[in-house]
């Protein structure tokens, strides 16, 4: 069941609106910190310009409001954003009734491995090793953030997703290690090509 009164917004809009649903008010800086703390592990790591573009869209639809709060110096102002009742209802509608979409996987490292016949063997192994290190680094960061979320009862659901992210990056690391072993075997089994003649054109 869908509500025809809820506009079709990009998923990034719902992500920003969802972050606003966790607090009374947040600044654009707060939203950037929260996204880097949690969303980056499974969805999106936004720039400030993306965040403010989404906030502007949400205000246009009446899903968020903003106000300027003076800083301690009494001169500079900071804009704070809050979700509206209409925004909370729309976010709940999206969570409960949006179609379940297949995740989009655009894995550039796997694309390069898929084109391994064009790669220098040492370089391909280096690419996969870098990816293994990246996956392990992300696993550790997600684990730290999951432990932090567990300290606050209000973050029970983000904490559960962060624990899923830990397992995801563990699997990504282990799958990449298996692929690295496959690549090493393929390199060892590859027939040795004769060197190209030097000093003359080959027709």
UniProtKB/TrEMBL annotation:
Give the species this sequence originates from.
Nocardia goodfellowii
Q: Where is the Transcription regulator PadR N-terminal domain?
A: 16-92
InterPro entries in the record? Tscrpt_reg_PadR_N, WH-like_DNA-bd_sf, WH_DNA-bd_sf
Identify the SUPFAM superfamilies for this entry: Winged helix' DNA-binding domain
* Keywords, in A-Z order: DNA-binding
Organism lineage reads as: Bacteria, Bacillati, Actinomycetota, Actinomycetes, Mycobacteriales
Instruction: Tell me the protein's name.
Output: DNA-binding PadR family transcriptional regulator
Domain of life per record: Bacteria
Which molecular function GO terms apply here? DNA binding
